[in-house]
Amino acid sequence: MKIIFLTVVVLLGSLHASVPADVEEFTLSNGIPVITRTIDNNEIEGISFFIIGGSSALTEETQGLERFSLECAMMGSEDFPGPQWRELMDRTQAEWTSSFNYDYSRYHLKCISEDMPVLLSAFGDCLLNPELGAQAFEQVRESTIQDLQEKYNDPDSWIWFVANDAFMPGHTYRRLPDGTDETVSSFTAEDVSNMLDERIRSGNLLITHAGPTEPEKLRDILELSFGEIPAGEQEFQQVEAFTVNNDTIVVQHREVPTAYAVVKFNAPPQGHEDLQPFNAALTVVNDLLWQVLRTDNALTYSTFSGATSYRENWGYMYISTPQPVLACSLMAGVLAEAIEKPMDENVVRGTIEKSRTLENLRAASKDNQCWMMGNFEICTGDWRNAYTVFDNFSELSAEDLRAVLSRWVGYGGWGIIADTTVVPIDQLHPWPLR
To answer: I want to staple 247 with a disulfide (CB 3.0 to 4.6 A). Which of 29, 222, 263, 430 is the partner?
Structure first.
């Protein structure tokens, strides 16, 4: 699938020893690109299948259709009907996990080496020749709607989408990969067939692998499993930058004892040289939020900050508190002070070392290796950025972190869920971040 990148930043000056030498790339006969890292420390394989596009492939009416279609396909196929497919899963103890985000859908398989060929063969058949039986179809619909309702009924989960209403109205990412009750309720078997036919095309796909199987053998396995996927691709324009022109707020009333608040603000896009310093700065802010809001003022049992990892990103701060007016004011003040004054140099050094340690621990997982290579290939145009991104991290200073926040943090989009009979709505306004 062609994504038109306006800017692709490979982190120059970093392409050296940090890029592992055991990564190879090849292309299947139908054009599906594959990135594989040979890791032979045990017989466990990790393999990820990415379908590129995410929200860009959806409309207001088809929100959730890709996820719904793929989940329906995974219920069984012509050669591996439902009972046989489930028996294969039970027998091999394979783990399939899935995620559906703003940039892509991803299925990840964890299994032992000897089971990988048959599991991938069954997966390929599910994608190309799904049963789509009426009972299985409705089972997926019921399960999906239940998941959506559980997410909505949990204010701690839903607050992020309330903040989206304030931060990204009309943006591509406002189209939800999981869908809505209304869209999921409307999908038909014909919709699912059409979506699979449109999306399961070689140019829309990427496969990443981390495990002991050597590239040539892996190529043969993948060719048998996915070689019949037809050629073709869709073209999407690059995801647009966020354009929040003023501080905004969306308040949702619920009878809850604790209010929930999230503010989102601009962050560097994936692949930009400012993204990792920005992440480091928000990690320091994270510690400051806990100190100010929990330790000093006892206003919360949970508060944190961070940034996303999509093509276009945002920073965020979160808090749950019975006193949202005071807590949000203090939260905004913590970020504003971090923008105005350099952070403590010792705190910055500790944060950087902690971040490097956490990244190295995450990289030990084959699942995360597959995600890293795929995510950076899709979002920056080069999988190598997954490994070079921390190369110059140790050189960052407190002034660097202050400066990167100053360059990127502007207006904020606030989402709040609160009992407005207890917290007067006229006191809930957007708090400036700088």
So the answer is: 430
